Amino acid sequence: ASLVGNVLKSLKTSGLLRAAGIATSLSDSGQQ
Description:
mainly alpha, Trehalase-like
């Protein structure tokens, strides 16, 4: 269960980072 929890946690974290990166790239291109 702990292993599955760690995997889900890493997936959620990577998803958040990916979403943040997309938002940052969009805002950067908008400013330019």
